[in-house]
Specification:
- It is a single chain.
- This protein has helices spanning 13-20, 24-31, 57-73; strands at 10-11, 46-47, 53-56.
- By secondary structure, it is mainly alpha-helical.
- The protein has one domain (11-73).
- A three-stranded antiparallel sheet has the order 1-3-2.
- A hairpin with a 5-residue loop joins strand 2 and strand 3 (53-56).
- The relative contact order is 0.17.
């Protein structure tokens, strides 16, 4: 069985930055294990080419919902 991938949307860094309201350096520090801002729950990018990456929109949306929930419940 094959999955229907026609509805999958890929966001580039600027779109992710805009969605979550952070700058480029903050975005990449979420992914850097050596950074104090590292967030292991933050979605990992996928390679689109030799030097291009993108994020799956539904994973970013899920991460945002998780942040909203934890912010409101204090967890």
């Amino acid at each position: 069985m094959t999955k229907n991938t026609s509805s999958i949307q890929i966001l580039r860094a600027k779109e992710v930055q805009s969605r979550i309201g952070i700058g480029r350096s903050s975005l990449y520090s979420f992914l850097d294990q050596k950074s104090p801002r590292y967030n292991d729950a933050f979605p990992k990018p996928i390679k689109l080419g030799t030097s291009a990456v993108g994020w799956i929109e539904s994973e970013i949306d899920e991460w945002i919902r998780g942040r909203m929930t934890s912010s409101r419940t204090g967890k």
